Amino acid sequence: MFACCPKGGTLEQRSEQGHTFSPWIPGNGVGGAGCRWTVIGGGRKEDRTDKPYPKKDDRSASELGPTDPALDAQNPDSFFPPPSDAGGVQTLKYPFSIAHKRMQEGGWSREVTVRELAVSKTIAGVDMRLTAGGIRELHWHTAAEWALMLYGNARIMALDADGKSFVADVTEGDLWYFPTGIPHSIQGLNPDGCEFLLVFDDGNFSEYETVLLTDWMAHTPHDVLSKNFGVSERGNGKDAEKGKVYFPSRCSRPAGCGPEGRRGLAGPIAAGFRFSYHPTGGYQTHQRRRGADWLSRPSTTAQ
Description:
There is one protein chain. This protein has four helices and 18 strands. By secondary structure, it is mainly beta. The N and C termini lie far apart (64 Å). It has two domains: 2-79, no CATH class; 96-251 and 262-295, Jelly Rolls. The strands form four sheets. Strands 5, 6, 7, 8, 9, 10, 11, 12, 13, 14, 15 and 16 form a twelve-stranded antiparallel β-sheet that branches. Strands 1-2 form a two-stranded antiparallel sheet.
C-alpha cells in the first residue's frame, strides 16, 4: 500500500484510497532512474472486482527475474494462477527427486513424509531400490505398509504373530501388504534387483526410524540371543551394533532355497493366506491428462 516516487521524491502512504503497488526495476539497473513503481490495482475497494484479470501474455503477468522454466511448466497454475485461486490451498505434492537419498552398499531409499509435505498427515511414501542380492534388513514398525513393485524382481519374507514364516517372490506390478508390527525383509533378485514404492498409513512415519533386527540384538543380553538362536555367546553380537539397513548378499537360488524351501522353525504361515498379491486380470487403468490411475480390486487379484 505504498508508492515510491522517483529519485528525490517522498514516500507517501495511499492505503486510504485503496491503491496497491508493485515494484518495477528499470532495465538499465537500479542505480539509474531511481525507484519506480507501477500500479497494478487501484480505485476504491468495492470497484476492484470490475478490473479485468491479467491475461497470460499481459505485462502485468510478466516475470522478469530468474526463473525455472522446467518447474514452471510442471506447475502452470502456480506460474499463472486462475482468478479463483486465493492462495489458501496447501502444497499438494513434493517430488522424490529433491528428497534426501539414503545410500548404502546394496541399495538406497528416499522418503516424503509430513515433514516435507505438510498436508500429508495420514500418509507417507518411500521409494526404495535394492541391487541384485541387496537386502533390506529384517525390521518392523508401528505403521502398516503396502507396496507396488515398480521394476525388477524381489523376494519378501515375513513372520506373523505366531512366528510362522511367509516367503514369496514378486515382480513388476505386484503388490504386498504388511500390517502393523509384522517383521519383514526384502531382497532384490537377478538380474538387476528391484525398485518399489512403499506407502504407510501415518504421515509421521520415517524409514529411518524402523526397529531393525540388529537394533534388537544390540540391546538384548548375549545369553538370551544364544538361547534364542542356538549359538555360542562368542558367535553373536559382533555385527549387531553395525546397524546395517541395506547390505549386499549373494543372489543364488539353488534347489530348495526358493520361496517353497525357506521356512522358519515354527513352520509356514497358514495355507491360503498371503502378504503379496498379483493382479491376474491386470489393473483397471484410467487415463488422465498428466498420467494414469491404476486400480486393483479383490476380484482381479490372486492371493
